[in-house]
Amino acid sequence: MDELFQRRRSSFGAAADLYDRIRPSYPPEAVRWLLGDEPRRVVDLGAGTGIFSRVLASLGHDVLAVEPDDGMRAKLASTSPGVTALLGSAESIPLADESADAVAAAQAYHWFDHDVAHAEVARVLRPGGVFGPVWNVRDESVDWVAELTRQASLDDGSGSVRVYQQRGFGPLFGPVESARFRHSTLHTVDTLVALVQSRSYYLTADEATKDRIETAVRKLASRLPETFELPYVTEVYRARRL
Predict the structure, then answer these.
(1) What is the pTM assigned to this prediction?
(2) Which of 52, 129, 130, 191 is the most buried (most CB within 10 A)?
(3) What is the pLDDT of residues 140-188, one digit of tens each?
(4) CA torsion, points 9, 122, 174, 126, in degrees to nearest 10?
(5) What are phi and psi of 74, to 5 degrees?
(6) CB–CB of 236/178 below 8 Å?
(7) What's the rounded Cα separation, in Å, for the pair 173 and 159?
(8) Regarding beta strands 100-106 and 177-187, do their DSSP bridges make them parallel or antiparallel, or are they unpaired?
(9) Where are the domains of the chain?
(10) Are 102 and 43 in contact (CB under 8 A)?
(11) Beta pairing partners, 41
(12) Is there a contact between 118 and 173 (Cβ–Cβ < 8 Å)?
């Protein structure tokens, strides 16, 4: 992994409060498609501040949230009652072999060393268990949302999983299935700027680039109503451990 990639994937801890406050949650129906309705022991891998962990817990699952960043994990522990926060990573999961029914990775899979992570996920999953990367992807079929991506140099990283939908997650997993679920979050100019400020590209940029991005986002949002919806497509992928 190159130095920029490493800096970007480790940039979120300093912005943990902002990240937890401004990042969107996930539709419960997406979790039900991934896991079914029966309560399961689920590892939330790269759990961040626990946004996806809390959805899992609200649906009755036993959630083990694995997060390498101390700042993100501390925020997770303080905001996610009933969720077990663990120090670890996709490449080194602190659990015994075949001890989980499912492993999810919400907004995190594109930061993994995939080959190493696939082997670790397979190790901790029981046979037949589910591995599921999940993304909230901005709906760029809406013109102003596509312009937001161009103006703010944003990248969700979701393209990386589409390769694996064709290749799969390695020889220990079955074929990859996918589903999509639409939802939206309500924003103002200021909260849209805050959302952009929670992105790794912004967090690792120099001050001139940050100023340029904020100016562009404010100019774009000034053409929208005072409050407006930002549409998302939640992309969910799943494959079973053989």
Answers:
(1) 0.93
(2) 52
(3) 999 999 999 988 866 545 455 555 566 789 999 999 999 999 999 999 9
(4) -130
(5) -65, -40
(6) yes
(7) 20
(8) unpaired
(9) 3-138+155-184+231-240
(10) yes
(11) 62
(12) yes
For residue 96, CA distances in Å to 85, 99, 242 come to: 16, 6, 18
Question: For residues 182 and 168, what is the distance between their CA atoms, to the nearest angstrom?
Answer: 25
Question: Which CATH class name applies to 3-138+155-184+231-240?
Answer: alpha beta
Cβ atoms within 10 Å, residue 88: 20
Chain centroid to CA 61 = 18
Q: How far is CA 101 from the centre of its chain?
A: 20
Q: What is the mean pLDDT of the chain?
A: 92
For residue 152, the surrounding DSSP H or E stretch is: helix 143-152
- Distance between CA atoms of residues 69 and 210, nearest Å: 23
Helix (H, G, I), strand (E, B) or coil at 76: helix
Dist. CA 150–CA 235, nearest whole Å: 21
Strand partners, 183: 232
Residue pair 11/40 in contact (Cβ under 8 Å)? The answer is: no
**Secondary structure of residue 72 in the 3-state scheme:** helix
Rounded-to-integer distance, Cα 101 and Cα 71, Å: 27
Quick one: average pLDDT of 105-130? 96
Amino acid sitting at position 80: S
Q: Where do we find the tokens 């959302």?
A: 195
What CA–CA distance (Å, rounded) separates 106 from 136?
Answer: 8
Query: Distance (Å, rounded) from C-alpha 153 to C-alpha 212?
Result: 11
One-letter amino acid of 81:
P
Distance CA 56, CA 40 (A): 9
